[in-house]
Amino acid sequence: MIIQKVQDIIGSEREVKGEGWISRRLLLKKDGMGFSFHETIIPAGAKLELWYKNHLEAVYCVAGNGSIEDLATGETHDIHDGVLYALNNNDRHILRGGSEDMRLICAFNPPVTGRETHDSDGSYELVEGD
Fold it and tell me: What does the pLDDT look like over 65-101, one tens digit per residue?
């Protein structure tokens, strides 16, 4: 059984920060679950162009607000508490923070190792090993 507490992850190697995001990685590849599971904070007003070309991602918003723009179609969707989006086609997208910080719960497949940060094209490289 694995028990993780977000307060224990804050300030540890499992908390990874980048420009416009904080990712608290609750489950990693080395935990052996077949996916990774994160709490991600997107600050109000942030704008991130992302493309998880090596991962599928499902995201559930539990607080705050923002939007996601599908770069293939130009469609924009509001995100707020209770909304899930899934990048089932490795969708290129722009994630925008709204008027308050968004708190997102994310699952990645394949799982991340914990060392990943966004590349210049907004993706995570596929890291081998744990």
Answer: 999 999 999 999 999 999 999 999 989 999 999 999 9
Q: What percent of the chain is modeled with pLDDT above 90?
A: 78
3-state helix, strand, coil in the chain (%, to 5): 5, 45, 50
CATH code for position 12: 2.60.120.10
Domain span holding position 13: 6-109
Domain count, the chain: 1
Measured distance between the N- and C-terminal CA atoms of the chain, rounded to whole angstroms: 19
Walk across the sheet containing 84-87 and list its strands: 15-18, 21-27, 36-42, 102-109, 56-63, 84-87
**What is the phi/psi pair of residue 58, to 5°?**
-120, 135
Give domain status of residue 122, yes or no. Answer: no
